[in-house]
Amino acid sequence: MKKYIPLLLLVVLASCGKDFLNKQPAFFTDALFWKNATQAETALAGAYSPLQNEEALGGEDWCAFECFSDNAYLNDNGYGDYVALSEFRANQNTMTGDLCGLAYNEYYQSIKRATDVLTNVPNIKMDAAQQKRILGEANFILSLGYYELAIRWGGLPIYSSTDPSTALTRTTEAETWTAIENGLKEATTQLSATHEEGRPGLGAAWGLLAKAYAHEGKWSEAQNAATQAIGTGASLTSNYADLFTIAHENDSEILFGLGARFNNYPITSVLMLPNNFWGDLQPDEPKGEGWRLVSATLSFYNSYQPGDLRKAATVAQRGVDVVTYNGLTAILQAPNNLSPVVCVKYNAPYKEKYTGWASGLNVPALRLADILLIRAEAIMMQNGGGPTSRTTGVAAAAADLNLVRNRAGLPSIASPTFNDLMYERRMELAFEGGDRHVDLVRWGLAEEVYNNLPAEGNYKPKRTYVQAKHRLMPYLQNEIDNSGGSIKQNPGYSGGK
Predict the structure, then answer these.
(1) Which CATH architecture has domain 10-70+80-257?
(2) CA-to-CA distance for 129 and 411, rounded, in angstroms?
(3) Which of 29, 99, 141, 11 is nearest to 291 (CA)?
């Protein structure tokens, strides 16, 4: 987005699957580029690559955003500024070199490259079906980037390849969400239900559009978009834990999974694991190579209903639960973890052998289960249920909610309430990019939930959340400074109104 971002960092595209992620970058100029179909594919691959970096969708910020909720916290990894944000103590955001600062840059790099594709590829003489698919993927990537930024910061600069001044002014929140809608609507006319691994298909476009509508409170539109996504042929994977294994990372439930490269990026699979599984009880090495960036709270661990199969697939408690890592099966010790609970959702690639900091496991960015629950929510909101009537049963929402619930080993609910929906979304989507916090904020329930939680150890202190201020993060100060003040701070923070 910013005027100092390079024109294009391109990754050469291979013929199929996620192989296109394995090629080395190359640099081009407009004088030599935008001439043929091969270059169009190369430019599209360049739009994907920032998403895979250590921050953004492929790493630290996607994982760490979970810590804003009551599910998780950051271990002592030297990210004090980000911890202050997640504890709602920060009045300014000066982070430029890690976590949300780099994530902001990486999402905007992806946005810029996707916009360049949308600007230039229509002028290339090439196969019409291929051109249509490239434009559909670019519209999805563009909208995904804006979505991830908007749920954090609200109104955004909307990049234009022909007007550099757009980098210096934030649009309103409504204008930003309209831009997200428009890109996804266009993508729904360009993508097909079938798609290669690591790429979005029609289900992803409709699914993300449903989530955008839900964020805006457009419930009829959210229900329709979710219905369209569900109707593209995707189905739930029968075993929840399988979703987070390399063998099942391309199941149809994964509407969009960010493609991973072994021993390269993204690194999501290792970020939440402990750096010592066994303490001194096992002589075998390595005892653990996890980054332990993010861990689970004990209160989250204790929130599962009896019999919920998602618990063992998501979290493990020190001294209680048996886990398998690097060929060993034993009771978890994790002595260096601040809480007694760790997230094991992405441990599957390391069960037999530790294979390095990037296991090659795709990032499950958008799943069918999420969209089923969005449709259930939209039905509830139109039939007397919702955040202000959480105990009202809505039988019409039962079918979608129970598909997700039954997969988790739990009995059906004939007339589910909004409280039931809150439980299912929390447990189903835990440690997948921060949906718990985003949900509580958009429902207007974050203040009630967070402020009523007692402190848990010294890692999750008592927090004070104010909806009018903390529903958005403070905008990055360097972006405000670089704009000469034309970009304004969010309300409630230093310099905001």
Answers:
(1) Alpha Horseshoe (1.25)
(2) 45
(3) 99
Report pLDDT for 21.
Answer: 52
CB–CB of 57/283 below 8 Å?
A: no
Please provide residue 317's backbone torsions phi and psi, each rounded to the nearest 5 degrees: -105, 135
Three-class secondary structure of residue 10 per DSSP: strand
Q: Which amino acid is at 106?
A: E
Cα–Cα distance, 374 to 211 (Å, whole number): 7
Q: For 401, how many CA atoms within 13 A lie in the half-sphere containing its CB?
A: 28
Q: Are 59 and 266 in contact (CB under 8 A)?
A: yes
Nearest-angstrom CA–CA distance, 41 and 126: 11
The domain limits of the chain are 10-70+80-257, 268-357
Q: Which two tokens stand for residue 294?
A: 């993010």
Q: Which whole-number Å values give the CA distances from 133 to 121, 202, 208, 259, in the listed order?
A: 11, 10, 17, 18
Along the chain (497 residues), what's the average pLDDT of each consecutive run of 10 residues? 29 40 49 89 96 90 96 89 96 89 95 97 97 98 98 97 89 98 98 95 98 98 98 97 97 96 90 92 78 96 98 98 94 95 97 91 97 98 98 98 98 98 98 98 98 96 98 96 93 85
Q: In Å, how far from its chain's centre is CA 77?
A: 21
Beta bridge partners of 316: 342
12-44 residue pLDDT tens:
333 334 555 554 444 445 657 899 999 999 999
CA of residue 243 relative to chain centroid, distance: 15
341 forms beta bridges with: 317
DSSP reduced 3-state for 456: strand
Given this model, what pLDDT does residue 150 score? Answer: 98
CA distances from 73 to 76, 92, 323 (A): 10, 20, 21
Strands (E), 153-285: 254-258
Q: What is the DSSP string of 272-339?
A: TS-S-SSTTS---S-S------EEE-HHHHTTSPTT-THHHHHEEETTT-EEEETTEEEE---TT-SS
